[in-house]
Amino acid sequence: MMLCEEKFHEMYKQDATGISFCPYRICPIGAHSDHNLGKITGIAIDKGIHVAYKPKHNGVIELTSLQFEKRAQWHIAETPPTKQNDWADYLRGATLALAKNHSLHIGLSAIIEGGLPIGGLSSSAAVIISYVSALCNVNDIHLTPAEIILIVLAAENNYVGVSCGKLDPSCELYSQKNQLLYLDTQDDSYELIPTHPAMKPYKIAIFFSGIERSLAGSKFNMRIDECRSAAYALKAYAGMEYGKFGETNLREVPRNVYEQYGNRLPTNWAKRAAHWYTEFDRVEQGAEAWRKGDLDKYGQLSFESGKSSIYNWETGSPELKTLYEIMTTTDGIYGGRFSGAGFKGCCMALIDPAFEEKIKERVTHEYLNVFPALKGKYSIHICESADGMII
Q1: Is the separation of the CB atoms in 211 and 382 below 8 Å?
Q2: Catalytic positions, written as ranges
Q3: CA separation (Å) from 211 to 161, 246, 300, 307, 376?
Q4: pLDDT at residue 256 is higher than 80
């Protein structure tokens, strides 16, 4: 029995009538590109968000998180139209997005449990998807994965104010165990590339830095604005048509235009564009390497993605940069990078299972040698690839 089920019975003196689960995801190659309609590769992992719930026929939504202290409550017909600046804002936003096209009459009581520390694994999208699944279940609503992805984007972009793209929910919905998701966020076409029979064995290591921070208040949105600014300027230099700033993206700017006019961009805009175009190349090369079973090549491209994220995208806290540098010199790690925006959370790595214990020992020793105050907060979690959420 999951802890959320036990807590549900303890709180409500009855069993939950439903359990929904959405996995976390990793994105070894393709980071910081989906918001400008790039390509990504991703894998769902066997840890994620569980929600134990039962319907409330009076329309009240009552949410308790095992990771946060404050309980959230509102009526389904009176969802606050603006964010309340707490952990449940993602779910308020999702409620409003769902209610735009569907009739909601039944609320729910729910207890939410996260399987790993918060930060870098798309926990916000996983929480939204698990919650929406529960809310749809009690209201007899049936959604496609594409519809759920739009609800996630509406909640994060419009309600919470984080300018993320489709990467996170797509990985959590479309992924399948032992396959690599290769997604083009321009048209949402995707391929699931099977693990090649000759590929070396691997597991997924999550190195949690011990640091948790909020995306909405960070430089995450600024980086995306800088990327759009580069696209807008390149279009102007080339005499291309351009419309609204918020709808402009680098995918619309041909490579030859970038190569011809990129040196005119202000330094920061040029760096963001450099990351986006080189990451596009890395994704295509990575998909081909996975198809051939070349895990060494795929891992090296993931390391290169991490380096570009640090030096061109210019994200990564001191803790995550340190973890990244340690990973690059640790035997048995094929490749990896910090996971998510890089302002909080964790690094992920694809590792050789034969080196698991040595990797844990070395990374822990080297990291806590630099950040001794994080002992007890830093942690390592070994995961496997998994299926995305079944709708």
Answers
A1: no
A2: 168
A3: 21, 31, 26, 20, 12
A4: yes
Q: What is the dihedral of CA 142, 136, 340, 263, to 10 degrees?
A: 50
**Ordered DSSP codes for 285-348:** HHHHHHHHT-HHHHHHHHHHHHHHHHHTS----HHHHHHHHHHHTSTTEEEEEE-TTSSSSEEE
- The pLDDT value given to residue 217: 47
What is the rounded CA–CA span in Å between residue 184 and residue 180? 13
240 in helix, strand or coil? coil
Kindly report the backbone phi and psi dihedral angles of residue 328, in degrees, each rounded to the nearest multiple of 5, phi listed first.
Answer: -65, -20
* DSSP per position, 187-222: TTEEEEEEPPTTSPP-EEEEEE-S----STTTTHHH
pLDDT at position 22 over 60? yes
Residue with tokens 């290591």, as numbered in its chain: 205
Query: Please, what is the average pLDDT of the chain?
Result: 94
Task: Tell me how far apart the terminal alpha carbons of the chain are, to the nearest angstrom.
Answer: 22
CA separation, residue 292 to residues 80, 197, 298, 301, 305 (Å): 50, 9, 10, 14, 20
Distance CA 332, CA 363 (A): 11
- Average pLDDT of the residues in 325-346: 90
Higher pLDDT, 138 or 1: 138
The answer to whether 374 touches 368, Cβ cutoff 8 Å, is yes
Mean pLDDT of 28-53: 96
Q: For the chain, give the longest Cα–Cα distance.
A: 67
Q: Do strands 385-386 and 72-75 pair parallel, antiparallel, or not at all (unpaired)?
A: unpaired
CA dihedral (207, 213, 219, 224) positive or negative: positive
**Measured distance CA(84)–CA(199) in Å, rounded:** 48
pTM: predicted TM-score of the whole model, two decimal places:
0.94
